[in-house]
Amino acid sequence: MSLISIGVEVDGFRRPARDGLRQAAELGFRPVELSATGREVSPEALSDSGRRHLKRYVEGLGLSLAALGGDLGGRRFADSANLDERIDRTRKILEMAAELRVPVVTGRIGAMRSGDDPRTEMIIAALDQIADHADKTGVIYAVETTETTPDLLNAVLKRNACPYVRVAYDPAALLMEGDDPVAGVQPLADQVAISFARDALQGSGDRPGRETPFGTGHIDFAEYLAALEEAGYHGPQIIRRTNAENPIEEIAAAKKYLEDVLRG
């Protein structure tokens, strides 16, 4: 596990994109995920020259764009009212990723349920369209492990059968929704394209789970990383913090925590 690289989701710094990228470099990260749905970085916001400037800026900091965040919020692809628009925006993010030579776009697809569920079928149909474009661009669209179970997500991906539609594994999201984040690796073993590192407390009764600083939650990172390694995943661990009170300090502490785990 010592060869695993540790990266960071730049949005976690809660700063403008360039400031967040600079902060990531100052903390010693190399791989990063950068959101591609905001005012600063998106297909609509960046011209061809703007994309070239961004690529040079990232490389000049010694960083590597491991992924673009393509989550569109709301009900994602489970909302028929603006479904075509969301599919089109995702296509454009995939195209921008290809231009920037970013291998992965991550995103949530909406809440899926097993059985005969019309919204799940709508999500699957949308994912089929996204798969076609991911295949054309050569960029992986990685579905985040949230709002569904690993078994159902595995079944949907097997049905989709596109090598460019895979998984962005978030152990904390699974834990907060009542799934075992370590056991959940096995059904998706050959489909993990990128892994988020995030800690959380498991919910109980009427109390929902919640994200926590690293080392204060219920994620056993040694077991989690071992499960990923056994599954054949050797990509980066992207630190994700969505509610840190002191983002810079807490992300730096998370980096040290993971480094200690990797040293064993």
Question: What features would you describe in this structure?
Answer:
With 264 residues, the protein is of the alpha/beta class. Helices cover 40% and strands 17% of the residues. The protein is built from 8 helices and 10 strands. The longest helix has 20 residues.
Strand portion? 15-25%
Q: Kindly state the number of beta strands.
A: 10
Largest sheet: 8 strands, parallel, barrel
| Secondary-structure class | alpha/beta
So, CATH architecture?
A: Alpha-Beta Barrel
Helical proportion, percent range:
40-55%
Oligomer type = single chain
By DSSP (H or I, 4+ residues per run), the number of helices equals: 8
Describe the strand arrangement of the main beta sheet, using strand numbers.
1-2-3-4-5-6-7-10
Per CATH, what is the topology?
TIM Barrel
Low-confidence stretches: none
Ends apart, CA distance between termini: 9 Å
The best one-word shape is globular
Q: What's the SSE pattern?
A: EHEHEHEHEHEHEEEHEH
Radius of gyration from CA coordinates: 18 Å
CATH superfamily: Divalent-metal-dependent TIM barrel enzymes
Overall average residue pLDDT: 94
| Name of the top-level CATH class | Alpha Beta
Please, how many domains? 1
